[in-house]
TrEMBL record:
Full protein name: NAD(P)-dependent alcohol dehydrogenase
Cofactor(s) recorded in Swiss-Prot or TrEMBL: Zn(2+)
Name of a matching Pfam family: ADH_N
SMART domains: PKS_ER
Keyword Transmembrane in annotation: no
Gene3D superfamilies, A to Z: Medium-chain alcohol dehydrogenases, catalytic domain (3.90.180.10), NAD(P)-binding Rossmann-like Domain (3.40.50.720)
Alphabetical UniProt keywords: Metal-binding, Oxidoreductase, Zinc
Keyword 4Fe-4S: no
Organism classification: Bacteria, Bacillati, Actinomycetota, Actinomycetes, Kitasatosporales
Family: Belongs to the zinc-containing alcohol dehydrogenase family.
Domain called Enoyl reductase (ER): residue spans: 8-362
InterPro entries for this protein: ADH-like_C, ADH-like_N, ER, GroES-like_sf, NAD(P)-bd_dom_sf
C-alpha cells in the first residue's frame, strides 16, 4: 500500500519548510497504526533541529505533537480501532529497564528513536514525490503532515467528543510542564512553586499547579506572557526584577518549595536555586548549552536539582487526566493555542520564535 498526502518537509537547516506531496509505503506493521492528523502543535524542539549541527538527518518531516483519528491498524493487538481519536506522544522501546519501570521518557533508546533518526526494523518507508528517502519518523510521528504511522504504544485514546485538532500539545509541551508539577514534584494544596519562563511548558506548569491548589509565581521577560500567567492565577515577576531571589522568597513565605526552569539560562537557574526554601527542589526541562557554575551555598540545607524529561509522564495516564481537568475548567490549555493552516507553517515558526504566540497548532 502507498498513501500519498501533503506534509511540511525541512530540506535544509537554514531554509523554510516546503509543503509538498510525500508517500508512506506499505501497511502499518504489527503494533502500528495509521492516523489521519487533525492538528499538530509546533514545539521548540522541532525548531531546535535547525541548530542540531547535522545530528538530525534531513530532509525530514518533523512534528511530534500530533492528534487525529485512527484510519488503519497493523495486526489485532494494537488496542486501538479504526475511528478512535488519539493523541500522539514520544516513542520508546517498551522493553528496557526504564520502560518496564513506568519511566518511558528515560528509555534507553529515547535519543535514537526520537531525535537522531533511529528507524525501527520493518518500519514503513517515507519518501518524497520523486521517490527520495525522507528521514525516519521524528519522535515516532513526523506529524507535520496529513497522515502519520506511529507505534500504538505512543498513541493515547481520548474522548471523541473533545476537539481532537487542539489536543496534540498534550503529547509533549503541555505534558512536560504539567507532568513536572503533578508527577516530578507531586505538588498539592498550599505548596509554593516558581516557574522560570512562561512559554508553553511554563504556562502548562502554572495551570497544573493552580489546579493542584498551589501558590505560583511566574518569571519571564515578555510582558504579554506575564499577563497570560497572571490570567492563569500566577503572580507575575519580570526576570529583570532587582534582587529577584529575595523577591520570590518574600512572595512565597520564606522561599519557594519548588522551582521549574524552562529557559536553560545559567543566571536564572542560579536565581531559582537561591529562591528555594530549605529542602526545596529545582527541576530543569531545557537543554543547557553552556557551563553551569553554581553560586556558593546554592545546594545547602537539603536543596536539590534534577533534570525532568517529558514531565516524568506515562502518557497513557497523564493525558486523560489533563483532558479531564480541561473539561472541568481547571486546565485551560486552549487559551494558549493559535491555529494555522499547514500551508502557513513558516509563518507559525516566525510567530513562535518572535514570541507572538505561545503554542501554534497546524491544521492539515
Amino acid at each position: 500500500m502507498t498513501t500519498r498526502f501533503r506534509a511540511a518537509v525541512l530540506r535544509s537547516y537554514e531554509k523554510p519548510f516546503t509543503v509538498e506531496e510525500v508517500a508512506l509505503h506499505e501497511e502499518p506493521a504489527d503494533g502500528e497504526i495509521l492516523v489521519r492528523i487533525a492538528g499538530c502543535g509546533m514545539c521548540r524542539t522541532d525548531l531546535a533541529v535547525r541548530g542540531s549541527a547535522g545530528r538530525t538527518p534531513l530532509p525530514a518531516v518533523l512534528g511530534h505533537e500530533g492528534a487525529g483519528v485512527v484510519v488503519g491498524t497493523g495486526g489485532p493487538d494494537t488496542g486501538l480501532n479504526t475511528g478512535d481519536h488519539v493523541v500522539l506522544s514520544f516513542d520508546s522501546c517498551g522493553h528496557c529497564r526504564n520502560c518496564l519501570g513506568a519511566a518511558p521518557a528515560y528509555c534507553d533508546s529515547f535519543a535514537s528513536l526520537n531525535l537522531f533518526g533511529g528507524r525501527k526494523e520493518n518500519a514503513a518507508r517515507f519518501t518524497d514525490a520523486a521517490g527520495g528517502e525522507l528521514a525516519p519518523r521524528w519522535f515516532g510521528q513526523s506529524s507535520f503532515a496529513e497522515y502519520a504511522v506511529v507505534s500504538a504504544r505512543n498513541a493515547v485514546r481520548v474522548d471523541p467528543s473533545l476537539p481532537v485538532e487542539l489536543l496534540g500539545p498534550l503529547g509533549c509541551g503541555f505534558l512536560t510542564g504539567a507532568g513536572a508539577v503533578l508527577n516530578s514534584f507531586g505538588i498539592g494544596p498550599g505548596d509554593t512553586m516558581t516557574v522560570f519562563g512562561a512559554g508553553a511548558v511554563g504556562l502548562a506548569a502554572v495551570m497544573a499547579a493552580t489546579a493542584a491548589g498551589a501558590v505560583t509565581v511566574a518569571v519571564d521577560r515578555h510582558p504579554e506572557r506575564l499577563a497570560t500567567a497572571e490570567r492563569l492565577r500566577a503572580i507575575p515577576l519580570h526576570a529583570s526584577t532587582a534582587d529577584l531571589p529575595d523577591r520570590i522568597r518574600r512572595l512565597t513565605d520564606g522561599g519557594t518549595q519548588y522551582a521549574l526552569d524552562t529557559t536553560g539560562s545559567p543566571e536564572l537557574i542560579n536565581d531559582a536555586l537561591q529562591a528555594l526554601r530549605p529542602t526545596g527542589h529545582l527541576g530543569l526541562v531545557a537543554r543547557i548549552h553552556t557551563p553551569l557554575p553554581l553560586r556558593p551555598g546554592s545546594l545547602d540545607r537539603g536543596r536539590k536539582i534534577s533534570h525532568i524529561c517529558e514531565g516524568d509522564a506515562v502518557p497513557g495516564l497523564l493525558i486523560p487526566r489533563l483532558t479531564e481537568l480541561w473539561q472541568a475548567g481547571r486546565f485551560p490549555f486552549d487559551q494558549l493555542i493559535r491555529t494555522y493552516p499547514l500551508a502557513d507553517i513558516n509563518e507559525a515558526e516566525r510567530d513562535c520564535e518572535a514570541g507572538r504566540v505561545v503554542k501554534p497548532v497546524l491544521i492539515p
